[in-house]
Amino acid sequence: MRLTVFNGSPRGKASNTAKLLEHFLAGFIEQAANEYETLYLIHEKDQARCVEAFKEAETVLLAFPLYTDCMPGVVKTFIEYLEPLCGRDGNPALGFLVHSGFPESVHSHFVRRYLEKLSRRLGCRCLGTVIKGGSEGIRAQPERMNRKLFRLFFELGRIFGKTGQFDKKIVGQFARPVRFSKLGLLGARLGGKMGDMLYWNRMLKKHGAYDKRFARPYEPDKQ
Amino acid sequence: MKKITILNGDPGNRAYELDSYLGEIENLLESRGHEITSFVLRRMDISYCTGCWGCWVKTPGECAVRDDSAQICRSLIGSDFLLFASPVIMGFTSAVLKRTCDRLIPVIHPYFEIVNGEVHHRARYEKYPALGLILERGADTDQEDIEIIRDIYSRMAVNLKSGLRMMRFTEDSAEEVADAIDSI
User: How does the average pLDDT of chain A come out, rounded?
Assistant: First the structure.
């Protein structure tokens, strides 16, 4: 199978998206005849090259982080360039990977509806959407913290390379929790506090900005 | 009197009617005493959000990239009503509007909180504007597209500590839209 990957992260090669794809693709090429090409939408000066790559592709994976509960701007730009391909014969099969820092998958459910509609609009066979939450920070964390996650992405890629399908069991596992239960929310509240302290406060302090963390530079009476 | 910010997401590469339609609405709203700040996004210098978190952890509340997006954040926080306007292109609002929405995150705070039983980010300011959306349908726009856009903008409204209070189409008369904005 020949897979064309569009990495839609604004962080490009240094993104969490790239990290997740790295493991997915390592699994994918386990199958000796498989090959892939990755295009980074943010690094691509010439959008026409991306459209051409999409046109020539057999199977496409479009991957991006959730931005304001939707696709990042650069991905929408790319999608607009695809407009002339709507309904064309021979469009590739199309699968999606959406990940976000939020622990629940519900945040990404709305853009999934958009993406699956997009497949129909283009006339692409839709391979589905892999949603993964809790993904912010993995690029900065030591590998061992994410060993299990990376193994699952490898496995997802391996099965995809063999069957051309996202494994339902792994996709289901990634999607949990969709929303927190009442009890889960207690944990999420605590987890949020820990995230504030261990993630945000640490970075704020590193940049000497902790004391200014509640700044309101655009407050009207300060103008 | 309301302070109103309008984000015009017409990309200008086709004969959309949005520019002139918004012009009519602006005139009506001004004649009714409202104060309008209107941004034609395609004429502004607004780059893609790079996901650097500078606006949350380096210069809290302000983007590290100094371009025209700062004017929009300032105007948003000073407004009672924020109107997004865009043609529907490939089933969603324009790329130039989405790119701009990505650059609004300086107005919220990184810390987490639970909203409607979900993890979200906290407010940075005490007050945020009510949100509205005006769409110009494309030849291929169907009801499903409209529902998807409505739902995603409703989610974006939760992120902006607000609500989507109005959704209209360019086939509605400018008076109707101005009345709707008046009544919010």
Answer: 95
Contact at 8 Å (CB) between B166 and B154? no
Q: What pLDDT sits at residue A223?
A: 47
Joined together, the tokens standing for residue A3 give 């897979």
- Extents of the domains making up chain A: 2-179, 181-211
Domain coverage including residue B70:
3-182
Q: Are B68 and B103 in contact (CB under 8 A)?
A: no
Whether A139 has a pLDDT exceeding 90, the answer reads no
Q: Does A209 sit within 8 Å of B59, measured CB to CB?
A: yes
Which of B89, B99, B119 is opposite residue A73, by nearest beta carbon? Answer: B99
Residue A222 sits at the chain B interface (C-beta within 8 Å): no
pLDDT at A221: 77
Q: Which of A51, A136, A122 is nearest to A90 (CA)?
A: A122
Task: Kindly report the CATH number assigned to the domain that includes residue B59.
Answer: 3.40.50.360
- B61: nearest CB among A69, A80, A216: A216
What is the dihedral sign for C-alpha B26, B29, B32, B33? negative
- The maximal CA–CA distance of chain A, rounded, in angstroms, is 65
Q: Cα dihedral sign for B168, B169, B175, B178?
A: positive
Q: Does B174 touch chain A (CB under 8 A)?
A: no
Q: With beta carbons under 8 A apart, name residues in chain A contacting B56.
A: 200, 203-204
CATH number given to A2-179: 3.40.50.360
CB contact under 8 A, A113 and B151: yes
CA proximity to B114, closest of A68, A176, A192: A192
User: What is the 8-class DSSP label of residue A200?
Assistant: I
**What ipTM describes this predicted complex?**
0.97
Residues contacting B71, CB < 8 A, separation 6+ = B39, B44
**Average per-residue pLDDT in chain B?**
97
Number of structural domains (chain B) is 1
Please indicate if any CB of chain A lies within 8 Å of the CB of B7: no
> What pLDDT score was predicted for residue A137?
77
CB–CB contact A68 B74 (8 Å)? no
Alpha-carbon span A81 to B90, nearest angstrom? 9
- DSSP per-residue letters across A99-147: E-SSSSSGGGHHHHHHHHHHHHHHTPPEEEEEEE-S-TTTTTS-GGGGH
